[in-house]
Write a structure and sequence with these properties.
The structure is a homodimer of 768-residue chains. By secondary structure, chain A is an alpha+beta fold. Helix content of chain A is 32%, strand content 26%. The first copy, chain A, has 19 helices and 33 strands. In chain A, strands 1, 2, 9, 10, 11, 12, 14, 15, 16, 17 and 20 form an 11-stranded antiparallel β-sheet that branches. A 5-stranded antiparallel β-sheet of chain A has the order 8-7-13-19-18, with no helix packed on it. In chain A, strand 31 and strand 32 form a beta hairpin. In chain A, helix 4 runs antiparallel to helix 5 and helix 10 runs antiparallel to helix 12. Chain A is globular, with a radius of gyration of 27 Å. The two termini of chain A are 40 Å apart. The interface between A and B is large, with 50 and 50 residues.
Chain lengths: 768, 768
């Protein structure tokens, strides 16, 4: 971990000095995206060193044929992969005929990269001495426009330093791309046409099997010392590629610039026959605005996002940089403007895991989007699951369930299950619970009940049905048990009575029954419509209730704690602290059986339940379980430290809370898990946000009232955040001694601060 | 199941009438082998229908790159596959220029195939009307010689029935073969040379990665009405193939015959430089003997095998055919003449499962070979594992064990683990127990203790070390537990305290300690040698003893039975009888999670322990456990019915014992498991033998004395078998009313019959 090469900075991710071994890490860290597309921070010019080329279009995927060792009934036929899309950023550069390639230069000086999170752009500058001894200075800037989300822009400047020389720019589009994580090295794209028109070029290609049509396009312009050059170019095209080449004589000290606009137009948003014409007009619009004009709009758009979503931390630049890095990447990944999209675990920064939607969305991400965007964004995430309900019912049917029982997939792109490990795909069923919980959480936070009669109740019913069918009565325990599951702690597989799973299963049934009553009482026509659709009898509801009322929860009288699962106390209970560092991380050092029979916990499991249902337990109970389980927790999931940070703060363990905060916020920046080259951990970034707002800020909902219990790590002077609560914005600014509250809204709001009611009024600072 | 197309016959497997849908099943059932090589019963002439071509050379394998969905630390890099070898049997036939292809004929009449088990040959005859309306009669016979085990012979006769015509024979060798079960469609063979010399042809090729050099060869001769034709031939060779073509005019009613000798010479047995010359002399020897001469020797060799191994059953042809089918295939697969070989689960009849050695050898096969061959054959199987001890120690080290702990692989070809499912590879560790048990069993049966000080003790020590390290102390249970295992019942994965595993683990430790004492006391120099090698301290042995003495065994007071594993009684305990037939077999109908949480047992698990350690328990205990567990057993492993048949016989449940006997003996003939097309279940065939000898015959060892408790199913008039016991042969002939015993040997032998001592003398029939 901790490459420690990213410079501390409040607003930017900065790398200084070229190090080939860091290229893939920086490509991940400095990825850019605009919700509709994204790309790793690959160099524009050719690079022969070790690199992971990646550019992705939201929602364009490929059903890669499943690869397994031993087939099990019920496995999906394919794994929907986030698809590496044609490269539009490429600009090859030759200096006096020699290709510029940072892997082959004699010297590279003053190399600097910056991902400017405040304004949403990526820059790079360096001085390179090529093997032909010519020395040039290069400055590039690139961004993906928030304003025109099918578009990106690049400005690429070259200044000869040592002598006059010929600079050849070859901007290109390339469809000869593959996925790093392809299962069978299959081809994913078919090129349909390659065209060019003046300074524009277009490749129309379609994905195999899924038939997404995408037009990848570019428009280029070369200028010298600020004056546009209207020079001739050569055009080269092959079956997968089209390139323009501009040859220019450039005097020593003069600067030649190529501006390139490019991006993707797909049939997800446009008619297939219009792709080139839409691409054309998009490029023309970009060209009219110009690079600087587009960049100005980019700054404005990011300023608007930051105005709502920013968290400031004074006195701790590492912590400040960390939280902004997290908030920035979340907003690059998902903006809530397209209800067909979701929040992939690696966003647009890599390919690992595939799919776009995990339980991470409901368990970690919704709260962030709910508080930093309009509440319709959260609602759109809920509707995404509603739209997949039929597929979830089919998924459950494949596993032998019936009568409308729904099992949401572990990983999906379109509602169908993609994952193919039996212990996860078939057994990590707690994911269903998070989907019901998110419906509850949305209502709890927004107060908007309407979603439940409209759509949510059907989801709650499908999930309740699943749990009732999945539990069985144990004659031996005289209770309902849930056998053969994998809990949130994936370092246990096929266990019986995972407490978290049993707890959320019972809760899901109870919550469904409660809402059936409410809807029956208060939304009669919805109730009639839904009941006609789902065919739910009183007898069936009674069966649900029996399961919920007689659910078994493993408990140890001796330890006075709930047990993570049956048999947990049979393990050799050696704490993580007593585990030699040389054995860590265990997921890289140990065989799977050894991990499974160990007591080590990958991520919060019982504590995840205490997080969701904190108000069901006393603080003393939380403390007892935290003290029992955290010492066995290796936090080898990105989703672990955030929950622990929140709970440590709740327990007034500020040092521990702060350590967990740094670990979650700088997980990728400091590469705790030795894997940042593969991409970033996007979904856990929402957990980082929670660890400040819910952890240090202590934000909760108490009977519909927003409540805060602000605390501050001793390393910090102050911190501030904003939340959108029921269409008013509350700004919280916590200092060492007190906390200021401000309201941007129309009407007074009662909140709780450390348990006391405080009324805040629009534009009136309240200090507590 | 039960295609029911194999004719009942005492000595042969006969199919009448051509049915394309049965081709692959018959290819499996009528496979031929001679211990050194084997092949599926593919047609010699081209067949364009659905077929599974397979020919295999014992010990020639390929390390096929492992294919997994999600990699786990500790997985092997490759899976050693039984390798499909070049085809030497092919003889294409053209009739007036039209290819003979049973998939394309206008009519096929009088189709008949016979696998003659008594004499060890395969024949086929039919009358075909080709699309050109020519009608020919074809008669073929083929065998793999037991006498010259690198050699096979084919006689292929064609008689034109409708008119005179031209018959073209194109015998060929073909190296363009692939494995059906290849993971990545890799190429497995490199052709090195293709030669021919007069009527002989040779392809020398080598396996990739493993570098086995194999010369595949043929020699052909054509004769008409018994007179050899010395006609010209054409020779065609390509990069993978060489073919001769003989064109002959044949008058209506005349018979043209091609005789083809062929087979494999490999560098496993010969110098690489001599392969062609050895092949040449082998073919010449065959040619001198001629087809009939070779066949005569084949009959003699099989007569010798049958003289010792045959089991007769009077009054029940299906049962008789079944047992001979099992004994025949066991002898085709493994003859004990090459200590580097073992008994693959599919022998030479298919490719599924790969590897050559499973715990089946020790748990099921050794007893058969020990009783029907010289005891050195069983010893050779033990030595096979001794020779792999270092690899077993390496295998354990990969999983985190140390200090010489040995974990034998689940599947292997050369001692290295090949299998790649964590729940099997890492967790089905009970296999280690069977390897110790076989050492005990060998000594118990043969009385030959010398193997233990010579070699066996080192294996016992490595295995005891493994169990001691693998168990852990449960503070909660105040006992040693073994967590995270898969027992013999593979329909449970990653369970805690599988009774069978815990029981055999404790037994392995106790047995190792017992033998360390014996060797220390009685084999001083061996003791010193071994202790110097393994570095075993008194303290370590004390640690072993502590684990063995405090091993935990799950038990239910309520049910008065040992529990298959912790938590078994939490399941929905619905018996197999109450499971709809439409849900069976569950391994084809249910998703894996559903199987795992069900109570259904794939094969004997606790009952396997009761089988191994029958004398540790009372008959009443056996009965109670049989009555509890058998009703949950689906017998979806080929290894299940035999153990149940033995135990049902022990419990005097003859109807049940008989049903299980038919199921084990006719498993493949009647295709109970819908998979005979993939190949036969070779190792369970030894279980079939046990179900007669140990089941109905009631053969046991009681304090070193051979004991029988003969019983007879009501369907049978009598049955007989022979066993080699300590170099004398006892023949048992059981009738409805009494049992005859005969001794072929030198000195009187006391045996027990139904608990009473009976002395049998050489060549003196005793009736009890």
């Amino acid at each position: 971990m901790n490459h420690n090469y990213i410079k501390p900075d409040h607003w930017s991710i900065i790398e200084e000095g070229f190090d080939a071994s860091r290229v893939k890490s920086s490509e991940s860290l400095m990825s850019i995206g605009n919700g509709a597309m994204g790309q790793r921070a690959n160099f524009e010019e050719h690079y022969s060193g070790d690199t992971f080329q990646g550019s992705y279009v939201a929602g364009v995927y490929y059903p890669d044929k499943t690869r397994v060792g031993w087939w099990k009934n019920g496995y999906p036929e394919y794994f929907a992969k986030v698809l590496n899309a044609p490269n539009w950023i490429g600009i090859n550069v030759a200096v006096n005929g020699e290709q510029l390639d940072l892997a082959k230069c004699i010297a590279i000086e003053n190399f600097r990269r910056e991902l400017n999170m405040k304004e949403g752009w990526l820059s790079r500058s360096f001085t390179a001495t090529l093997q032909n001894s010519v020395k040039v200075k290069v400055d590039t800037k690139r961004f993906l426009s928030l304003d025109i989300d099918a578009l990106g822009a690049i400005e690429y400047k070259v200044t000869p330093l040592s002598n006059d020389c010929q600079i050849d720019f070859s901007p290109y589009l390339d469809n000869a791309i593959t996925n790093e994580d392809s299962n069978w090295d299959d081809k994913f794209w078919d090129v349909l046409s390659i065209n060019h028109d003046n300074e524009q070029a277009f490749i129309v290609s379609k994905t195999m099997k899924t038939d997404f049509y995408v037009c990848t396009s570019m428009q280029t312009q070369v200028s010298l010392n600020g004056a546009i050059l209207n020079q001739d170019k050569t055009v080269n095209d092959s079956i997968n590629q089209i390139a323009f080449t501009y040859n220019s004589k450039v005097s020593q000290g003069d600067t030649i610039v190529i501006t390139k606009y490019g991006g993707y137009i797909s049939d997800r948003n446009h008619d297939r026959n219009d792709l080139i014409s839409v691409a054309k007009s998009t490029l023309e619009k970009a060209s009219e605005l110009g690079f600087d004009g587009l960049l100005e709009k980019q700054k404005q758009a990011w300023a608007k996002i930051w105005d709502m979503a920013d968290i400031t931390i004074n006195g701790d630049v590492a912590a400040q940089q960390g939280i902004r890095f997290n908030i920035f990447h979340l907003n690059q990944t998902y903006l809530g403007t397209d209800h067909r999209l979701n929040i992939g675990p690696k966003g647009f920064t890599g390919e690992k895991y595939g799919g776009s939607t995990y339980w991470d969305t409901e368990a970690y991400c919704i709260q962030f989007y709910m508080a930093t965007k309009d509440q319709n964004v959260a609602k759109s995430l809920l509707e995404y699951r509603y739209n997949h309900l039929d597929k979830a019912i089919e998924n459950a049917e494949k596993l032998g369930f019936s009568n409308g029982a729904a099992l949401y997939p572990m990983v999906t792109m379109n509602g169908e299950e993609c994952h193919n490990e039996w212990e996860i795909t078939f057994e990590e069923i707690h994911r269903n619970g998070a989907i019901s919980f998110a419906i509850f959480n949305y209502y709890r936070y927004t107060g908007d009940y309407s979603y439940i009669p409209e759509k949510g109740l059907e989801v709650l019913i499908g999930i309740a049905r699943f749990w009732q069918q999945r539990a069985n009565f144990s004659a031996s325990k005289q209770a309902h048990v849930i056998l053969g599951v994998t809990g949130p702690n994936e370092y246990e597989n096929n266990v019986n009575n995972n407490w978290y799973t049993n707890y959320i299963a019972k809760w899901c049934i109870d919550y469904a029954l409660e809402n059936i009553s409410i809807v029956a009482r208060e939304y009669g026509s919805d109730y009639t419509r839904i009941m006609n659709k789902v065919n739910l009898s009183k007898a069936e509801m009674q069966d649900w209730k029996t399961v919920a009322d007689t659910m078994y929860f493993p408990y140890s009288e001796d330890e006075n704690v709930y047990l993570q699962q049956d048999g947990f106390l049979d393990k050799a209970l050696i704490t993580v602290g007593d585990l030699p560092q040389s054995e860590r991380p265990i997921n890289q050092k140990w065989s799977w059986d050894r991990i499974l029979r160990s007591p080590y916990i990958k991520q919060a499991d019982i504590l995840q339940g205490f997080y969701f249902f904190e108000d069901h337990f006393s603080t003393e109970e939380l403390e007892r379980h935290f003290d029992f389980y955290e010492p066995f927790t290796v936090h080898e999931s990105s989703l672990s430290p955030c929950v622990h940070s929140i709970q440590a703060a709740k327990l007034n363990r500020m040092k521990q809370a702060y350590d967990f905060y740094l670990r979650t916020s700088r997980l990728d920046l400091d590469d705790y898990n030795h894997e940042v080259e593969e991409g970033l951990h996007i979904t856990s970034m929402a957990g980082t946000w929670m660890s400040i707002v819910e952890g240090f800020g202590g934000m909760r909902l108490v009977d519909g009232t927003l409540s805060f219990e602000p605390k501050i790590p001793e390393q910090w002077e102050s911190y501030s955040f904003k939340v959108n609560f029921r269409n008013q914005i509350i700004k919280v600014n916590a200092c060492k001694t007190n906390t200021h509250f401000e309201l941007e809204g129309q009407h007074d709001l009662d909140i709780l601060v450390n348990g006391n009611t405080v009324t805040i009024s629009p534009n009136n600072l309240v200090t507590v």
